[in-house]
Amino acid sequence: MQHLALIGFGAISRSLVATLCDQPDAGLRALSLLVRSAPDKAHDAATQLCAPHGIAVKVYTDLADLLAAQPDVVVECAGQPAVAAHGEAVLRAGIDLITASVGAFADQALFDRLKATASGTGAQIILPAGAIGGIDALVAARLSGLEVVTYTGRKPPSGWAGTDAENRVDLAALTEPTVFFEGSAREAATTFPKNANVAATLALAGLGMDATRVRLIADPHTRENTHEYLVKSQAVDFSLSLTGKVSPLNPKTSLSTAYSLARVVLNRSGAIVI
Ligand SMILES: NC(=O)C1=CN([C@@H]2O[C@H](COP(=O)(O)OP(=O)(O)OC[C@H]3O[C@@H](n4cnc5c(N)ncnc54)[C@H](O)[C@@H]3O)[C@@H](O)[C@H]2O)C=CC1
Ligand SMILES: O=C([O-])CC(=O)C(=O)O
Fold it and tell me: The Aspartate dehydrogenase domain covers which part of the protein (predicted)?
């Protein structure tokens, strides 16, 4: 039976909770949420999802209080700054941390610090595939010797609104798909913290933050988030294209991200890990 804790209760968290409530194999008995504001509203919304399944909900505004309740695992679904703010305390408490905002680890000092803390306490930092997939094949290919990993992320202009893309291109005036960023995974994840976490995931699975090449496209002809990547290695070459439906709760986020996190949580309790 699991006591699940979530940092953030936005688009991903809400879909994740709704999904896990419907999965008896998840064995959820308690849900703890860390929010920054409106804890009563979060409590009501989460209770609506959880109460019919007998799952108790508690909402916190202070991480120390949440950790004192000793959750089995903490899932960060709040944004890169939340990994920097809270990651270390979670791991220091010996609790495994699943991070949606993998791009936070483009900050090498943060990555090194959290990894050292995890090694010290035996807790694990678990990086989900998120909006992409095929990470198993990429890690396996790395072990054989990787040559190239290139990623292209394509979203409708609305998915790039409020980001640095606005300084690079007039999103509202676009009539054709437009590449507005080319660079490393580190630059992409740092410059587009709400849109390019997947580039960091590919980097950590594969060739690293600096050698993983990234292109980002605003496409006025699409309503979906497309993630394409190409891998060349000693053992296998492959390319993958995922067309993600956009989360109805957040136009920047692919709906599949929450299901990827649900898979990670389910794999912690089921007899079969897949
Ligand atoms: N790995 C992947 O494939 C993906 C990762 N992401 C990451 O997940 C994050 C969350 O995505 P969404 O749920 O769509 O965003 P959202 O904006 O819908 O929800 C985030 C929630 O977290 C809250 N929050 C922010 N900082 C907090 C803190 N320190 N403590 C408690 N709550 C806090 C916000 O108030 C908001 O309610 C994104 O910012 C991004 O970093 C998003 C999409 C895909
Ligand atoms: O959900 C997506 O399409 C990917 C995303 O925002 C990210 O990697 O940060």
Answer: 174-261
Is this complex scored with an ipTM above 0.95? yes
Joined tokens for residue 124: 């694990």
Q: Which residue has the tokens 């912690």?
A: 268
The structural domains of the chain, with segments of one domain joined by +, span 3-130+255-268, 135-244
**With DSSP H G I counted as helix, E B as strand and the rest as coil, what are the percentages for the chain, rounded to 5?**
40, 25, 30
Cα separation, 46 vs 42, in Å, equals: 6
Dist. CA 8 → ligand 1 center (Å): 6
Provide the pLDDT for residue 24. Answer: 87
221 has catalytic annotation: no
Ligand 2 midpoint to CA 253 (Å): 5
- 211, two tokens: 């050698």
Return the CATH number of the domain spanning residue range 135-244. Answer: 3.30.360.10
Residue 197: nearest ligand to its CA? 2
Do 221 and 163 form a contact (C-beta atoms < 8 A)? Answer: no
Q: Give the C-alpha separation, 191 to 61, whole Å.
A: 28
Relative to the CA of 201, which ligand 2 atom is closest? Answer: 8
Ligand that comes closest to the CA of residue 33:
1
Q: What is the pLDDT of residues 81-137, one digit of tens each?
A: 999 999 999 999 999 999 999 999 999 999 999 999 999 999 999 999 999 999 999
Nearest atom, ligand 2, residue 244 CA: 3
Cα 78 from Cα 229, distance rounded (Å)? 26
Q: Ligand 1 mean position to 155 CA, how many Å? A: 18
CB atoms within 10 A of CB 44: 12
